[in-house]
Amino acid sequence: MKKIIILFVVSYLTCIGLSQAQVISDSILVEGNYRTFHYNKTASAKTEGSLVFVLHGSGGNGKDLMERTENLRQKTANENVLLVYPNGYKRYWNECRKAASSLANKENINEEAFFGGMIEYFGKKYKIDEKQVFAVGTSGGGHMCYKLGITMPGKFRAVAAIIANLPAEENMD
What we know:
By secondary structure, the chain is α/β, with parallel strands linked by helices. It is built from six helices and six strands. The radius of gyration is 18 Å and the shape is globular.
């Protein structure tokens, strides 16, 4: 009986260790700015997996959103998917609302270059399926998802915005 309990405990701990995602933070240089992102490298992620960008709202950051979406990370732990939590420029996105007053909008930060660079990064590093790239975001991150869908339709299979309205054409850059 003691051997069975020990075997069970060892098996359980091994399963927990294998299912835990390794959180990695990195950056890429985009037009003179180091843009940062965080992601999970799960044991189940293999080549040709999907890439999902999870975008924080205005004033937020990827690391905090990563912690708040632990359930999402757990649900995808056994899927062939990489969840990526990028950081907006100084906590904001240069998203699709012309009236947005953040520095990202005022400085016209090139978000398309940032997302294109991340897709290239994950294509080289993890051989993701570049036809299976998605974005989901809340609030300002939702507006950024709309912008990605509008300006980079060939790069994103689908985008989803939560707590964000689709901007009218006259309100877009």
